[in-house]
Each structure stands twice: as C-alpha cells, then as structure tokens.
Automatic annotation (TrEMBL):
This is Sister chromatid cohesion protein PDS5 homolog A isoform X1. Residues 1199-1208, 1285-1295 have a biased composition (Basic and acidic residues). Residues 1144-1295 are annotated as: Disordered. The gene is pds5a. Its main location: nucleus. One of its GO terms (cellular component) is nucleus. Residues 1263-1284 have a biased composition (Polar residues). One of its GO terms (biological process) is DNA repair. InterPro entries: ARM-like, ARM-type_fold, Pds5. Pfam families: PDS5. It comes from Cottoperca gobio (Frogmouth). Keywords: Cell cycle, Cell division, Mitosis, Nucleus, Repeat. It is found in: Nucleus.
Amino acid sequence: MEFPQQQKPAGDGKIIYPPGVKDITDKISNDEVVKRLKMVVKTYMDMDQDSEEEKQQYLGLALHLASEFFLRNPNKDVRLLVACCLADIFRIYAPEAPYTSHDKLKDIFLFITRQLKGLEDTKSPQFNRYFYLLENLAWVKSYNICFELEDCNEIFIQLFKTLFSVINNSHNQKVQMHMIDLMSSIIMEGDGVTQELLDTMLINLIPAHKNLNKQAYDLAKTLLKRTVQTIETCIANFFNQVLVMGKSSVSDLSEHVFDLIQELFAIDPMLLTSVMPQLEFKLKSNDGEERLAVVRLLAKLFGAKDSELASQNRPLWQCFLGRFNDIHVPVRLECVKFASHCLMNHPDLAKDLTEYLKVRSHDPEEAIRHDVIVTIINAGKKDLNLVNDQLLGFVRERTLDKRWRVRKEAMMGLAQLYKKYCLHHEAGKESALKISWIKDKLLHIYYQNSIDDKLLVEKIFAQYMVPHSLDTEEKMKCLYYLYACLDTNAVKALNEMWKCQNMLRSLVKELLDLHKLPVSEANSTAMFGKLMSIAKNLPDAGKAQDFMKKFNQVLGEDEKLRVQLEMLISPTCSCKQAEICVREITRKLTFPKQPTNPFLEMVKFLLERIAPVHIDSEAISALVKLLNKSIEGTADDDEEGVTPDTAIRSGLELLKVLSFTHPTAFHSAETYESLLQCLKMEDEKVAEAAIQIFRNTGQKIETELQQIRSTLIPVLHQKAKRGTPHQAKQAVHCIHAIFNNKEVQLAQIFEPLSRSLNADVPEQLITPLVSLGHISMLAPDQFASPMKSIVANFIVKDLLMNDRSVGNKNGKLWTTDEEVSPEVLAKVQAIKLLVRWLLGMKNNQSKSANSTLRLLSAMLVSEGDLTEQKKISKSDMSRLRLSAGGAIMKLAQEPCYHDIITPEQFQLCGLVINDECYQVRQIFAQKLHLALVKLMLPLEYLAVFALCAKDPVKERRAHARQCLLKNISVRREFMKQNPLAQEKLISLLPEYVVPFMIHLLAHDPDFTKPHEYEQLKDIKECLWFMLEVLMTKNENNSHAFLRKMVENIKQTKDAQCPDDAKANEKMYIVCDVALFVIANKSTACHLDSPKDPVLPSKFYIVQDKDFKNEKEYLATEMRQMLLSGKPKPAAVLGAVNKPLTVPGRRIFTKTTTASDTTSNTSTNSSPLSSSTNKNSNNNAATESSDSQAQENIENPVIKNDEGKKEEPSQNATPDTETEASPVKRRGRQPKTAPATPAAVEKEGAAAPTGGVAGRGRKRAADPNSNPSAESINIKMSKQQQQNDEGTKRQIDLQR
C-alpha cells in the first residue's frame, strides 16, 4: 500500500482536545498528564471508523500523541495511556494511518510493543488497559501496516519476543488467543517468515526453554498449528540448509535441529512433510555420531504413541530399520532400545522388528544382546500379545548365552512373565498356555555347569515359580500342579536341585558337628575339607573359600550363631522358623558402617540354599491332602490342565523325591494312612512310589505307629510275591529298611517263592525272581546258601539253558518291552538275580562267580542264543546280550569279582558297545558312563569308550566323547580334592587308561590283518578318540608321560597270550600307531617323562632288562597314508572305490546322515542329560526314539528325498542270519568246536570262552555299504545260498 501524504489538522495546526481536556504539554505535572490522557483515551475508545468529522477534528491530537514527548515519556502510566490512544487511532483511521513517515511508524510500533510487556503482571491495577491494548491490536491487525516498512522484520521480531516472554500461567485463555491472533496474522498475511522471526518461535520448543516457560511452549505450539500451511515451507528451508547443505551458521538453533524436529513432529507432522526425506539422507551419513543422533530422533518419532510415520513414510522406516545392522555399536544399541517403545505403542510393526531383533540377539556386543532381552520382556510384561513366539524364542536362546549378565536377564525376564501370566493368570488361560514352556526351560538350565546358573534357578523357583511368600496350602497347590505339568528333564532338574540343597545342608551339619569336637589338627583338616566342599557350591569359588573360612571363624566364636544355624538345618525346622533363623544370622553378620558387605552376600547365598523355604511337616500334610482330593475326584485337576491320573502319579513321585530329602516331615499317621490308600490303587507306578516313600521315611513306624505297621506288612508281602517287578523290589527293600524282625519277614517271602518257581510259566516268574534276587543281596548271611541250589538247579539248568518257546522271527534287532517274550524277560531277571546273589555274598569262596562269569561270557559269544537252537528271536538275543554285558560290568564294580574277571571276559563285555543293535549300544554306553562317573568301575572300563569311534551313528560317537570328557574331568577333580588319592594313581589318573585301551584294541576281533591300511586306520581313529580328550592340556608334562607309557608297553609281552608271536606283534603295531598319533599331535611329547609309568600286570608281562624291542612296525608309506589318507586309485570304467572287507565282518564305514547333522548338545549327546534307568534294561530301552528303533527292522521301507517309498536294494547287505561255515563269525565259535549246553552246565554255570578269533560281537552294520559279491570274501555253500535268496536285508542304522 502507498502511504498518503501527511494529513494536516484542522484549524491551521491547532490541536483540538476533547471537551473538558486542556492542553497536554510538558509544562504540566505527570499526574495532570495522566488525568487528561485518560479523558483522551475515553474519547478515542468511543469513536468508530465512521466518525469522519471527529476523525478530522482530532487528527492534530493523533499526530501530537506520536510526538517524542509521549513516546519517550519516563512515566509508565503515561506511556500506557498513549499506547492505548495510538492503538485506537490505528483502529479509527484504518486502513489508512494518520502517520506517513516510515521512521515515525517504526517508532510508534516499537513503542507499542514495549508497552505490551506490561501484560506480564496480571495483578497490576493497569492490567486491564494492557489487555485492552493487546485486544485492540489483535482485532484490528494493526501490525500488518508494517509490511510496507523496509525493516518491518525488526518490529515483528521484537513483538514475538515480547509476547513469548510475557506469557505465563496466570494468563487466561483470552490473552493467549489474542496473542495467537496477532502473531498468526503477521505470519499468514506476510510474504514469508524470515529465519530470525522463525527462531523466535522455535526457540521456545527447545527442551531447556520449554522447561523454563511451559506457557511460551504452548503458545508457540498453538501458533505453529494454526499457521502450518504457511510456515511449513520456511521450516523446510531452515532444515534443508542445516541438514543437507550443512550451513550451521544460518541460525543459532542449528545445533538443536533434532530436538526441534521431534517437537515439531509432536505438534503436527505436516510441519515436517518436506523434512523427512532429508533425514533419510542423514541416516546414511559417514559420521557415526551423526547417525546416532538421527537414529535417536527417529526412534522417538516412530515410537511415539499415535505416530503414523512408519506407515506414511515406508522408505524412511526401511532405512531406519537398516540401522539395526549399523557398524557403530551405540547406533545398534539405540535401535534395540527403541524397539521396546515401538512394540508397546505399535504392535503392527512387530513383524518388521522381529527379523532385526533376531540378528541383534546374536550381536557380538554383550550390552546389545542384553538390551534385546530387556526390550522383549518389557513389552511382554505390558501385554503378552505384543510379543510373538519368535521374539520369546530369542529370549529363550539367550538363557544359554556365554555371558552371565545376559543369561541372568533372560532367565529373570522369563521368570517374571511366568509369574504374571501362568501363576497369577493375569491374561487368561490362552496366554498362560502360550508361555507354558517357560517353567521347563528355566529348570533345564539347572543342567548347566555354572554355579551362578544353578543359584539363579533356585532363586527363580523360590520367588517366581513357587513363591515361598504364599501361605502353605497355596504354596503346595502351586508346587503340586507345577510338578504334574513339568516335562521329564525338568522334573529331573528339580529333583537334582533338592538333592543338591540337601547335600549342602548335610555338609553344613557335618561342619557344625566338627565344632563340637575338641580342637586338633585332624579336626582342622576335616573342617578345611568341609569348607572347601561348601565353597564349591557358592559363586566365585576363590572368594567363597575365603569368606567361608571367615564364616567358620565367626561360628567358632559365636555360640548363638551356631545354635541358629543348627536350628536352620534341623530336619524339624519349619519354613517360618527358617525365615526367622536366616533373619537372625543376617542381623548378626551385618555391619552398619559398611555400605557393601560381600562377606554377608556370600553367607546369604549359603543360607538361601540350605534354608527349607518350601518343605516342612505342614507342607507335606498339605501335599497329601491334595493327593487325597485327586484320588477322591474333588480336586481342581482339570482346571489346572492335568488329568486326575496324572495328578495322582506325579503327586506320588513328588512325595517320593521329597521323602529322600525331607524324610522327617512325613512322620504322621495321617500321611501314612493316605499312602496306604495309594498302595491299594491299580496304577502300578503309584503303588511303587508309595512303597518307596515308606522305605525312605518309615524308620519309626514300628515303634510309634503300630496300627500302620500291622496294615503295611501284609501289603508289602503281597507286593513282593505278586506285584510288579518294581513293586517287588521296593517292597523287599522297604521291609529290610524299616522292620526290626526283617529276617523273619524276608523268610516268609523267600520260602514260598523259592518253592513255587516254575520255568514252564515264565509270566509268573519275573516278580519272584526280582524278590529272591534282592532278598539274597540284602540278607546274604541268611539266604546265600539256600539260593545256591536254586541258582544251580533252576536258574542255570532249567531256565537259562533251555529255550521252551520259539521267538518271533520278524528280523528286527529290537522291539518294545511289550513285544519281548515272557521267557526272555524271565531270563533277563535270572541274570540279574545271579548278579545280586553274588553282590550280596561279596566273596568267591565257592567259585560261583567264576562259573557265572563263564556263563555270561558264553552268552556274549553265542550272541545271546546260549543253547544255539535258533529258537530265540533276534530282538530277544539283543536283550540277553545287553543283560550279559551289563551283568559283567556290575560284577566288576565289586573288587573281589573284578580281580577274577579275565582279560578275555573284559574284552567280551567291552565289545557290547559295538553291538549291531543301536539300542544295545546306547543303553550299554549309558550304564557304563554312570558307573564310571561315580568311580564305581575300575579305570580299565573307560577304555571301552575308545571302541565308540567305530560307531556309524554320529550321535553315539558324540555321546561317547561327552562321556569321556565328563569322566576324565571327574577323576581329575577327585584327585585335586583328595590329596590321599595320589597313592592310587594307577586306578584314578585318566592317562592310565592308555595301556588298557591298547590291549583292548590289539585284541579287537576286527583287527585280523595288522598291516592293512583300512584296519590300521580304524585303530588310529579309536586311539585318537581317546587321546584327543586326554591330550587337551599338557598338565604336568602328561604328553611325555603318555609317550613313555606306550614305549614301555613295547618292551613287554601280552599277558593274555605271551607266547603268541602274532598277538604280540599286533600289540606292538597298536603301540606304534599310538606313538605316531601322539607325536603328530604334540610337540612336547619328546620331553622327559615326569614319572615312570606303571603297567597293569594282568595285561602285560614285563621282560628282562636284556629284552629290547626297537623295531618299527609301521612302514614309512603306511605312516604317510595314516597321516594324509590313502591315495585314490585311477578311475576305471564302471568301478567305484569299493570298501575293503574283512572275512567274517560286516563292512563298516562311518556315515553322515540326517542324524549326523543334529547338534552335539542334544539330549542324547550329553551324558548328564541322557535318559537312564537304573531299574532294568527293558525300561531303559524303551527310551530310544521310534526313529532309532527303525534302524533294526530287517526290511525297512526307506523314503527317498522325493518322499517316494523304496524297496530294499537288490544289493543289500547279506542277512545276519546267514552262516558262513568256513569262516568264524564274530561273536560265535567255529562249528567245529561248539559251545555245547553240557559244557555250559558244568560247575553249575561253566562255559568255554573260546579263542581270541572267535570272540566278540558283530559290529554295527553300515547302512550305506553295498558290497557286490566280488567284494565279499566269503565262500558260501549252495544250500546256504538257496536259503538266503529273498532274505537279504538292508539295516539302516541311522534312522
């Protein structure tokens, strides 16, 4: 607009004042000026734009009021009144102003702007005039006049600064509204917003200013919302210059761009329509810190509760997700932290985040893996539906993380979810079902070696799974149904947990008992041993030892502390008492001046482990009541997700476990009455568990509960005579454990059973045989002699040496327990009876052990068919081989019998681990491992695991290796903890297994051609299978010790056949292979040996000093072949490298199939988690999976890759039943010298063991070997060939 020329006042320049108003000059006082100005203000207020006459009349006054006198007046009231007049003048004369000078207009608006500062004080008497001024300016949009001024920006900046500075929380909505109107008109009606003016608005959004003046922030927020269409371009320009062009000097706010973007996005995303693509550019910056800043910003924008940015700007979202894989660690960390808010506020984005969180859950940075867990758990705690199964799976994986901090976070997170959704049912049954796996997973972690993991599982169990703070009934209900829902491995872990806690309580009790003895050196040594054992059960073993020594010192000085501790570990201590004791002990050890007390923390760890926070007499009563309700059908079993039968069975199992750890808590008539009811139930497992509970807890029944005794005895007799085998065993042990007149009671069972034995009815034999075996073991003095005639006349002659029925000729090598014939089950129990009878006697005065060992050996040589009448089925033969091998191994655990086991019998026993039946190999290896790890078997039996190198199934090889590692570590640890063990080095030091291994391999029936590469390669693999584990570390120069030991063996002769040159040569060849392996795997083996090894005289005969064997039995080219492999022959048309074969032996090659690709940490690969069953071979066998059982089917239907069925190959391996007359079968004597029944009967159980070549078991057949007739070096008669037609089979060992 064009400014008009200066208007002239009427009356030749004379100023006309409103009626009653005298001249206002500098000659009058301020008060008078104010008085007169008020009247002028009133006049202008009453005027409107249509008053043309008055407008002209008072024009001079309007010009006068803009004079320096008024604009520079020091009086505040004068200035306010003048400003009000000027505002009205602009209103009245609008749209033309009476002032034409640009400078004058600038002065006037700057003057008015300054007066607006008076709005700050709402309590001022003049506030209404200030408000009137603001209202007038806003309504008239007076400041729009300034657009034509060149420096109008200065006025607007001053105005905006003034308004943002004066706004405060005492202003009402009208004040803010007029300010918004005033400023928005300037923004929306101008040509644009300068950067300086934009800064005056944006500065109020910066966090520091926002916190100082919240009202200014709200004012800016509202202003920006109203002017979004106009100001968006200006904002985009600002961010473009700063973000893209890098012109930070363009504004003082450049360093706050990301804060501003966040605030502007929260105000209105439309403000940043053009800015978001610029952020995508910044996300790809080369500067890590810059990327971090952008990621932080976008995390807030994407994660905001109502943000739709991810759906509106997919390219930016995808670019942001890419930062999860950023090379800069803080960027990845920020992304993971963002995911938590995103999952909570935007569940629809969970799918996008899942894949990126999966990668980050395996991030090399511990902090990032930790935060992934925190992210998922926090979202899950808010609402379980926010996290899918895949996300929870990441947390599950991290429970096995290598870092303790990550594992702990994952375990605690899962525990919190379990308590919230499974225990408290905060989201219904569906959510509880979704995470029902948590309870099992958490308990599985108890299998880990770390003591920290074990302690945390115990803590989680006590606080989250079965909270000890609950009242007894609620707590036991929780435990009762938890136990019923756990999987098998979780149950084992929970049982192990109670067992460990009970063991620790025993150690503390023994320590306290030592404090009661007089001080002595022996006492101090014993105390030290107990303290070291206790420290091993606490975190950080080094510190734990020091703290336990300190704690022991405090115990010695403080009798009250000892009393409290004794009360805590007392069998009669209740849960409430335990809490009081822990509190008292903690209080005594607390030092107020110490902010942190690691000593106290360690003691707390100990107290937490030994305090009975769950189980006491009251708790057992509550469990028994729950069991009764389940039996009566009045319990909440179905509501808890278990059937009544499952609840009863698992409830009894739970009570059985607790009867081992808390036997005293069971001693009440009510509890025993309930258990008697269980004995009458049809469920076999329930009755068995009830008997075992009586056995563990009933020591005082005879003296204190006569009524229970009189009811229990007939039931136990009945179970021992006609119950299941397991019930019979427990009944006999129960009678022996809790009754004083046990001899009379056992005799009443023994006599009728021994008279009623009838081999023609094998179904009725099994329970009597079990009972008789256990009676003779528990009371040998009374029953050993009468048992001898039973063994000679019935067990051996009538039962074992006769095959009354014909087995099922289905060709399977293994069948389920239900399919095993009753006669074979009876024979298995007969073998066990023989062993129990001998273990009870513990002497060999009558030479019965020799006879029994010959019988067992004969059974192994004949492959389980002792009579060789071919009546027995393949699967039944497998059962009997397993029983015979297990029986020899059991007898070897008794020193008096171990001494009479010959090397030949030891070798026969060991070869069971190479049996052709998968289940036989599996169960035998498990039994072998269990006996070895408990240090019950002599060291020589550890050598048997070397033969596992030949097992074609990778799973079995991996399991054997785990067994070796565990056994070796157990023996080394035992030697460290027991200094006296140094005297028994030859029976404990793992390195001493090498002589036994060399002897065993030298007598391997497969080792027939000692100079052939394939056979030597097998020997090398067996040797390295053991040596690899032994040579992991070179402790005390053990590599040199091993070398020296093997060299010494070369200077001896084989004690088994000292005059057989060929046997000795084979032994020396094995020694050379062993030396070759040791030298190739160790550079330190040529050093001097720390000790001179001692060789077992049972296996080696030391020669005179004149005897020197310096011959090299391995040719140079053979060494090279063993080192690098046999060179492949040149390709010949139609020929494939056919595997070498050995007469009488199945072709054996290690294969890799589907089972080989499974992880070596699977259940079957770990000796600790392997399924084991001490009760019987039969039950243990059923734990093999169906897929493993299929390997022994004679003609399996195999599915190829396309899923099509394939019939057995025409070139299948010859039937195992096929006889090769001219060649001795492995595990069978030559037909020219059969093991006749008469020979076996001699001396009650005697049987020839056969020569070296005819001993042993057939190796497991290789499923992939397919030899043609040319490659099988066996001559078969025409009659045999005819018999074999159509009966060839393919054994798939790895299905």
